[in-house]
Amino acid sequence: MNKEVIISVTGTQLNEYGEVDSQELITTGSYYLKNGAYFIMYSESEVTGMSGTTTFLKAEPDRVTLNRTGTSRQKQVFESGRRRRANYITPFGVMYVAVTPSKVEVNLTEAGGSINLEYVLEVENEKISANKLSLTVREA
Q1: Using one digit for the tens of pLDDT, what is the confidence trace for 51-99?
Q2: Long-range Cβ contact pairs of 61-65 (< 8 A, separation 24 or more)
Q3: What pTM value is reported for the model?
Q4: Could you give the CA distance from residue 57 to residue 128 in angstroms, rounded to a whole number?
Q5: C-beta separation of 81 from 87 below 8 A
Q6: Fold of 2-139
Q7: Residue 18, SS3?
Q8: What SS3 class is residue 110?
Q9: Is 36 helix (H, G, I), strand (E, B) or coil?
Q10: CA dist 14 to 8, 42, 79, 90, Å?
Q11: Residue among 24, 108, 94 nearest 63 (CA)
């Protein structure tokens, strides 16, 4: 199974001042199953501020691994209740980030489905925001 899909990504951030920022990206990408894990690949755009970056997601029942390559680079693992650190490399410099997910929900089948993440984001050891990320995959 390797198919072209439509991917919708919605991200919401709630900062320490109670301000909410949301972004949505709808794009096409690739979707396949390998060794019991679903893989999703798509290109970022100017909407996300990461034009020139490709995002790869590996979705397992209790873990989602995000891997970005291109103008921005990052490998971040999301596991419920586990704080995970990573370097986020951008054209403007390197940031030390960490995520602590409270929710990692993977509902994918060969036909598509969704990934829902809720997590606290830290940059340089300071809490920046509480985030929600929802990604849906459907056949093109």
Answers
A1: 788 999 999 999 999 999 998 899 999 999 999 999 999 888 999 999 9
A2: 61/106, 62/104, 62/106, 63/104, 64/104, 64/106, 64/115, 64/117
A3: 0.91
A4: 23
A5: no
A6: Lipocalin (2.40.128)
A7: coil
A8: coil
A9: coil
A10: 20, 25, 20, 22
A11: 108
